[in-house]
Amino acid sequence: MKRSDMNQDSYYLLCYTRVPVDETTYAPKLAYSMHVAYSENKRDFQPLNHNSGILFAKATDNPDGTLNAKSLKNPYLFYRKDGSFGVLAISVLGDGSEDISSKGSVLFFTSTDLLHYKEEGLIDLKGDTYVQDITCHYDMSQMKYIIRWSDTEGNCYQNKTNDLGPKSELSAPKKTEPFSIEPITTDIEGAVPRNVISISKEIACKLVGKLMVPENISIEVQAECKAACEEDLKKIKAIAGYSDGTTAVKNIDWDGSEIDWKKSGAYHIKGRVHQDHFVNPIAINRADPCIGRWNGKYYFIATNDADNNHSLYIREANNIPDLLQAEEFKILDTTMYEHLGNLLWAPEFHIVRGELYIFHAGTPGEFVKEQSHVMKLKKGGNPIKAEDWTMPLRVLKKDGSYLYDAGITLDMTCFEHGEGVFVVWAQRQFTPVDQGSWLYIAEVSPEEPWKLITDPVLLSKPDYGWANNHVFVDEGPFSLITDKKVFVTFASALIDETYTVGLLSAELDTDLLDPASWTKENYPLLTSRSVPGEYGPGHNSYVTDEDGTVWNAYHARFGIGEPRSSGIRRVHFDMEGYPVLDLVEEKDLNKELAEVHTTVYVS
Questions:
Q1: Which of 73, 282, 566, 599 has its CA 20 to 30 A from that of 62?
Q2: Among residues 428, 516, 534, which one has the least CA distance to residue 474?
Q3: What is the distance between the alpha carbons of residues 505 and 460, in angstroms, rounded to a whole number?
Q4: pLDDT class of 3 with cuts at 50, 70, 90
């Protein structure tokens, strides 16, 4: 739906969970989360966010650093006394079974916009049984929240409180008559409906704009312009408008054949909005892809699944589309260096202070010794020549010791911001217990970016159900810095069809080494439900071309059971300036709007 078509003063929002389908397509850790759908009439509900969850429960920590996966059931959405939103839900284990640690309690979340949520913690209802169902509303006449709940034995209770939160004083539970939630019928696939609230047009527009893929609905081109040569025509751009109210600048392929550049006059010409066409996958058996720009050329590199990760190849071209058919040149394999005898993973191009580097992971042998390394292009070197790269060096801490010895490090990425050069990487402790893969950040030496100059700082654990589905993993970070924020996307879960993409963000002027500067979104940006036929998308990287267009290179399985292979798609930005990764070509440009005209004045 277009924002311009949303003309009612209010709409309806349904919160619901889903029935788990199977471990491949919609496992319990995904199904047992809060989903939302909107309606104009309280009958015909349209699911948002690809019928995927937008609110997940956080895992809890064990004393040994491992995580207990959590999910939620029976969410209840309500207005708080200040007009913001609250959600109460039953905390369960990751698989949906009863959670003894939350016996007699319910999870409480707050939100100002129904897009960003804060998990406030458990509210103790002072009961000694498992909570089965819950409702809540603020009673203006009493100036109290009224909580009604039932337990697994069929008993119903009521609590009251002046304020709502984990530390609030609740009245003792009072036994009451059974209560019910207004039944909702919907044909949304797998939906287990809960309750409906009325929302304003403003909130509804934000939800639809943020949680539905935008579509190109208009193309604007200046009606007339001046030009002195063919090159001037390239400066005439189109402004593409989208259903969420956003825009994007597009090049135009103009037909200037009727213009006599030696003769003054007005020429009416036509053109077509340009769109690079990519048929994904663009590279079979290539995972963790990265495209870089260096000295006017583009380079492609990726993990080589075709030979079980024993070599790294580079492609070179004058533009991104030509990379698809470009020749491959081997720059590294597991026979070149004794300390890199196996499993070359996740290579990335990074320019630091004008020098080109490749960050990658490698091991002398088994997986449990995989570590981050950095190799540098020699002065005046050619990136496609193996001999022009220095020997990869293992990343060091600021005291000169190796980055980590109690497990593995991998997927290290690098970016410059302000005066600093930062790295973010995945680190997994194996001894004494396997904690899963966590993300860390540190600052490195600009002259020797394989050397940390600060201590590592924890950024993210795989604490949401979409991040610990099958395995507890956050990995594959990559930065995307705009004039709005510092973004870092990362990949989570097992590298199968459940792989997914999460998002961290920080304000431009904050201390990036302070964990409090970073916000992690509660739901993933990209999943197997985002683009039909693409399963387990993840390990993104970004490159900005000469026109300022940002491209996302990623891998996915283009069919269940298919190999990891590379794809590419333009990155759009929503009304908040956040990246949109699921805008496919047919929605990015409406072909029926692509033909444009203008009048060119030659003098």
A1: 73
A2: 428
A3: 12
A4: low
Dist. CA 119–CA 115, nearest whole Å: 13
For the chain, the first-to-last Cα distance in angstroms comes to 45
Confirm if 29 and 69 have CB atoms less than 8 A apart.
yes
Max distance between CA atoms of the chain, in angstroms, equals: 92
Q: What is the pLDDT of residues 348-377, one digit of tens each?
A: 999 999 999 999 999 999 999 999 999 999
Q: Which helix (H) or strand (E) holds 348?
A: strand 342-352
The Cβ of residue 426 has, within 10 Å, a number of other Cβ atoms equal to 27
Residue 1 has pLDDT above 60, yes or no: no
pLDDT at 7 exceeding the cut of 80: no
Per the CB < 8 A criterion, the answer to whether 179 and 135 are in contact is yes
Do residues 512 and 441 touch, judged by C-beta distance below 8 A? yes
φ, ψ of residue 202 to 5 degrees: the values are: -60, -50
**What is the C-alpha to C-alpha distance for residues 69 and 94, in angstroms, rounded to an integer?**
5
Give rounded-to-5 percent helix, strand, coil for the chain: 10, 45, 45
pLDDT one-digit tens code per residue, 418-460: 999 999 999 999 999 999 999 999 999 999 999 999 999 999 9
Q: Which two tokens mark 272? A: 């077509």
Asked if the peptide bond before residue 281 counts as cis, ω within 30 degrees of 0, the response is yes
| Residue closest to 480 by CA, chosen among 502, 462, 513 | 502
- Structure token digits, residue 562: 């298919």
Q: Are residues 128 and 104 in contact, defined by beta-carbon separation less than 8 angstroms? A: yes
pLDDT at 515 over 70: yes
pLDDT at site 31: 97
User: Does residue 5 surpass a pLDDT of 80?
Assistant: no
What is the DSSP code (8-state) at residue 390?
P
- What CA–CA distance (Å, rounded) separates 574 from 562? 31
Structure confidence at residue 9 as a pLDDT band (50, 70, 90)? confident
Neighbour-count burial for 509-536, b at 16+ CB within 10 Å, e otherwise: eeebbeeebbebbbbbbbbbbbbeebbb
The number of C-alpha atoms within 13 Å of 445 and in the hemisphere containing its C-beta is 13
Q: How far, in Å, CA of 74 to CA of 77, rounded?
A: 10
pLDDT, residue 570, reads 98
What average pLDDT does the segment 561-585 reach? 97
Chain centroid, CA 68 distance in Å: 23
Q: Smallest Cα–Cα separation from 115: which of 61, 157, 55?
A: 55
Nearest-CA neighbor of 159 among 123, 129, 110?
123
- Concatenating the DSSP letter of every residue in 428-472 gives EE-SSS--EEEEEEEEB-SSSTTBBSS--EEEE---STTTSSSS-
What number is the average pLDDT over the span 150-158? 95
Reference 478, options 555, 369, 546, 393; nearest CA is: 555
pLDDT recorded at residue 27: 93
Residue recorded with tokens 């196996």: 342
Using the predicted structure, report yes or no on whether residue 267 has a pLDDT greater than 70: yes
Contact 109, 122 (CB under 8 A): no
